[in-house]
Amino acid sequence: MPGSTFGTLFRVTTAGESHGPGNVCIVDGCPPGLPLSVDDLVPDLERRKPGQSRIVTPRKEDDTPEILSGVFEGRTTGTPIAVLIRNQDQRSKDYGDIKDKYRPGHADFTFDAKFGFRDYRGGGRSSARETTARVAAGAIARKLLREAHGIEVLGMVHQVGELIASIPDPADVTLEQVEVNPVRCPDADMAVKMEEHIKEVRKQQDSIGGAATVVAKHIPAGWGEPVFDKLKADLGKALFSLPAVLGVEYGQGFGVATTRGTEHSDTFVPDDGKAPPIATDTNRHGGLLGGISSGMPIVFRCAVKPTSSIPQERPTVDNEGNPTTLATKGRHDPCLLPRFVPMAEAMVLLVLADHMLRQRATRALDA
Ligand code: EPS
Q1: Whose CA is nearest to atom 10 of ligand 1?
Q2: Distance of CA 135 to the CA centre of its chain
Q3: Is pLDDT above 80 for 269?
Q4: What's the structural domain count of the chain?
Q5: Ligand 1: distance of its center to the CA of 287 in Å?
Q6: Verdict on whether the full-model pTM lies above 0.90
Q7: Domain span holding position 292
Q8: Which residue minimizes the CA distance to atom 18 of ligand 1?
């Protein structure tokens, strides 16, 4: 089935399931000459991998990437880059129960409705394990964007359940402030409370939702295509393509519903540090005007639902519609947010790499 390829000029295809032999990405369109090695992929994969702390799934995977093609003597060749991440710690017997039953709130039902047949082990292709391939591809995009424009993309958790972090300006947050705690929340005091809350929820055999912010900095003004491929539209699609995302907003987001034009519009001001030399004094527009980058930080937020796989026995139906009950086994995250951060960064990076190349094509006569 189509649907596993993303992007126009920087194009990524992923393949793989949670309990199959591994997950693969093929990145086609990465320019030649970019220095690239496994070491560039490892940091993001480490931030995403299971078993990294006591508040995530205990499944143990090395997630060591193997670059199979597209790199020669340490540099990209311009040909497709294939990356393989092998699965090592499948425990498929945990999933015998859901072969013919549907986990409430899970894609088990809709995958069956679509294909009539599914790999039920560990959620198959609907598993968060699939995001290993996206994060590997995103790390290639990160390297490209850094080399070309010094672009930085950073995610952070700002909410777990009712607990909301104080983050005065997400564009000022550093990677160190995010990575210093297992929640990936830069508000250190709130991170402690969030961690305790996640542990408590796990003890209660439940799960909890939350929200994350992603900031992209140093994007030149002018990226994004009118009208269907606006940067805001492509970023929205990218973030909504991640498992468990139920809401995406940028800038003032849903806050605009109660805001007047005089309060919302940011004022343009001169800025010698930018090309063209223009910035805005505030960033309520979230770095996008008309869906095109303004040169200000791009700020997106995602709401992520509580993990649907929880060990409590719950009523459900089997695949013939007969009422039954189900207690999900397997090793699940009580809260998806800590590992969601690198996944969201990866999707933003992939969109930006694509639009960097598209903007260069648009302004070909300037080169
Ligand atoms: C997942 C179910 C669990 C998680 C998995 C995502 O799989 P299992 O039951 O096989 O342990 O551990 O997460 C990962 C393995 C990963 O790498 O992200 C799911 O249903 O989404």
Answers
A1: 122
A2: 8
A3: yes
A4: 1
A5: 34
A6: yes
A7: 5-251+286-366
A8: 129
Q: Which of 45, 26, 29, 21 is nearest to 354 (CA)?
A: 29
User: Ligand 1 centre and the CA of 128: distance in Å?
Assistant: 6
Inter-residue contact 186 to 156 (CB < 8 Å): yes
Nearest to 19 by CA among 90, 119, 84, 86: 90
Q: Hey, whose CA ends up nearest to atom 9 of ligand 1?
A: 330
CB 108 within 8 A of CB 120: yes
35 DSSP 8-state letter: B
Instruction: Specify the CATH number for the domain of residue 55.
Output: 3.60.150.10
How confident is the model over 8-58, as pLDDT tens digits? Answer: 999 999 999 999 999 999 999 999 999 999 999 999 999 999 999 999 999
Nearest to 301 by CA among 249, 244, 337: 249
Residue partners of 290: CB distance under 8 A and separation at least 6: 224, 226, 230
Report yes or no on 256 lying in a domain: no
Atom 21 in ligand 1: which residue has the minimum CA distance? 127
Q: Summarize pLDDT for 220-229 with one digit per residue, the tens.
A: 999 999 999 9
Which atom of ligand 1 is nearest to 127's Cα?
21
